[in-house]
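Pasting two entries for a bug report.
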Amino acid sequence: MRLFHSPTSPYVRKVMVALIETGLLPRVDLVPVSGTPVAPDATIIAQNPLGKIPALELDSGEVIYDSRVICRWIDMQAGAGLYGAGDVEWSVLTLEATADGILDAALLMVYEWRVRPEDRRHSPWVEGQWGKIARALDMLETRWMGLLNGPLNMGQIAVGAALSYLDFRHGDRSWRADHPHLAAWEAEFSGCPAMLATRPPVA
């Protein structure tokens, strides 16, 4: 299998952690790609018409993409139970979607400042994206700590990747100040071997 990836992508990090936790990483070759929405990498466009990473080329030659799709495939392939069953499955899926929503908003903030010309940047729009993140963090702090503190699941991996990305690209926002339980959880989870092995390079 081939995983089209960038080591700084938090969506890729989710997949990498899942591959490590399920023992499937040795079966995967990593293909580096780069680009932005206005200058996508031709390599990834050939695999995913949306131009987004990660994308996973299976041994059959079929390509699947979107980190949630890939992580679900990994879990089913390995029989790891990272999504649970019954009501728990829906909770894990919702937690993962919440984490991915944080990432979506955080990445849009980055693109606003890195890709958009300076005279066209819109600070209220950026703050609107942070508002989404702040509300999601409040929800994690008040609603999701039980699931976060339970057995390893895909929601935890997604939240771990999201919080790490906030530190990586938006460290000045100091999200921990108003979320002590979430901060304590992140401090422990970030020390897991799979998280340490997938830390993005300084960039």
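Entry 2 (this is the one that rendered wrong in the viewer):
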Amino acid sequence: MNYRQLGKWGIHLSEIGFGSWLTLNNHGQENADSLHHCAYEAGINFFDTANVYGLGHAETLVGKSLKSYRRETYVLATKVYFGFDPDWPFPKANDRGLSRKHIFEQCSASLKRLDTDYIDLYQCHRYDQRTPLIETCHAMNDLIIQGKVLYWGVSEWTADQICDAVELCEYQSWHIPVSNQPLYNMIESHWEDDVFPICAKLGLGIVNFSPLAEGILTGKYADGIPDDSRAADEEAGQFLRPRLTEETIEKLKKLKQIAVNLDISMATLAIAWCLRRVELTSCIIGASRPEQILENIKASDVTLNETTLSDINAILVGE
């Protein structure tokens, strides 16, 4: 496993991070332990979750799974923004967003579920249009001052939103965001043009999620939608099926052939393609089986040459 510095900051993350969203497919602690222990023993030191995953259940699974390891040996990240309390008898007006109230309450709840004294990287899961940015930045700074959080970051924020937050924090002498977590993969690379350059300029590290586009870039859909796949499931595949157009499937066939020629899996190819960007610190993968983790981490040792990257680009732009 190789490690990269998180932007301009001193902390280093494994090039492959492990996210907990997919562990919810099986829910059990035994399965979560197997996956997290496999990831840790393979050299992954970056573990990402969110308070909303499984309505808090994912954080509990992650906290218990990592409890057997020394806390200083891994980087633990979670997120705040979405509301999720299903047991409340009427809508909770403040159970959402990035207000000081919601951030402080959810940070305390996450610390309890994760069973830890501090969160390494606390991320704003989305931008909150309803809350003044100064309130959000001030709250994050205070959590760091209190020792509950070491670094804070954002997810899916635009270039302008990131610039505004950094400028505000610098003016106030507050801790600035250190990272951005965007959706980024071969078929969804829309953040490259503006967000990537801004992150590089301001020193934010990028920890992208969905480098395999929820399994699309594993190669399993190169010949259509298998009956036993997630895309075939009526509920689980509702966000996948619209992305599996004829044009995309044709691209998948060509990309799979490149992987075959390189004697690597298509998943390895897709993650290595993401890691070609120097602005990117870590690719967050998901998995339901340990062997998927072991396959995906191979990308950390794969460097794609210029010819291969040119061939991939030609496929992606439809040449």
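Dev reply: Rendering is fixed now. As a check, the viewer should reflect this: The domain at 3-218+281-289 is CATH 3.20.20.100 (TIM Barrel).
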